[in-house]
Amino acid sequence: MPIAHTLPGPWATTWVSLIEEMLPSGWPWLSGAADRQHLVRRRGRHRRRPGGQVHDHPGPPVPSFAPEAWQEVIADKRRPGKLVRRHFEICVFSCQADELVRGDVAAVDSEAYANWQSQLLSWEDCQPHLAIYCAEVGMPMKTSEFVAQLKLRMTGVAATVDAGYPDNADLLIDEQSRLSLKARKSAGHSAEALKLATAVKDRLPERSLLEILTRTTRHLRWFRHFGPLSGSEAKLADPLERYLLVAFAYGCNLGAAQAARHLGGRVSAHELSYTVRMHVTLAGLNKAIADVVNAYLRLDLPRL
């Protein structure tokens, strides 16, 4: 279903026009879905018409709905004014999914579900094949014989369950005749499992994540992208240590408060959050990530 039909109103028209305007060639299934809305250039600046784009700094224009983290990714640096098609597609549907989760966008008729019974074969179509099907699965073709066979099977299963109840210590029946199961207790690890765990532990010695981060700073110096917003030299007592702790706290998704508790008073939550606010920018963080990813791609592991 085209986006213009799924997402009604100006919101759909805006995204469809952006796709047709910014990509080298519009998507075939979106052609004709909305009128194009062009940028107006005036004195080296871009001004947005409703549903267009906004861009007030040098470089290619970027869609106004795209988050800051996406803007550098989707812009095609080799062709100013164009977007990288595949990256832009991912950005569009990522933003669409976020707005659907928040409730800012709703799909038309999303509350209506198809009737699954209408997709089944009619009885007239099944009747000629009924005898062959019953013979293959071992079921009687007549209704009375089918019901009798089903009752016999259910009675047999019920008798088997009743006979095994006294020996089933995990199944309980209370005074209201309600069934409940106890939590299953582990029978312990087998000798083979313990042997495997010992071998893995011997071959993979324990490593410290902070130690690994420290080694990456020596080889990659990714911390050079962090610093005061003014561009002056950091006035922290030990900038490298602080940046390492910040990368550990936020890279592990602990946050400042949780990381400070685990670090045993070595640094406070305020000091960590202050360093993030005053020394780390999105552009610098992306450059540090690029250094680490590029170094990883030069290793042997990604080529396996």
Automatic annotation (TrEMBL):
It comes from the Bacteria. Transmembrane segments: none annotated. It holds the Pfam family DDE_Tnp_Tn3. Coiled coil: none annotated. Residues 40-50 have a biased composition (Basic residues). Residues 211-303 form the Tn3 transposase DDE domain. Residues 40-62 are annotated as: Disordered. GO terms for biological process: DNA transposition. GO terms for molecular function: transposase activity. This is Tn3 transposase DDE domain-containing protein. It comes from Streptosporangium minutum. The lineage of its organism: Bacteria, Bacillati, Actinomycetota, Actinomycetes, Streptosporangiales.
